[in-house]
# Entry
Amino acid sequence: MAIIGKLILEKNEHINFRSGDVFGDVIIEKDYLQLRTYAKGDLERGGGSKQNVQFDKKTAKEFRAFLDEFIKGK
# Structure
């Protein structure tokens, strides 16, 4: 597991949006949170398509601030 050590806010980037449902899951442990996403159609989560993002509590709080900014539309 590689914990995110620093988050950098990039406001001038364009997101390459692809429509369709992607499956994801969240694992919460005592000191860490992990978000895993899988390729479209991999509902069994077994096709080797997994992408992981791991947060400790410090970076989770930073990311929460980014999410709050996004949700509020700033």
Remarks:
- The beta strands are 24-28, 32-37, 51-56.
- The radius of gyration is 14 Å.
- The chain has one helix and three strands.
- Residues 57-72 form the longest helix (16 residues).
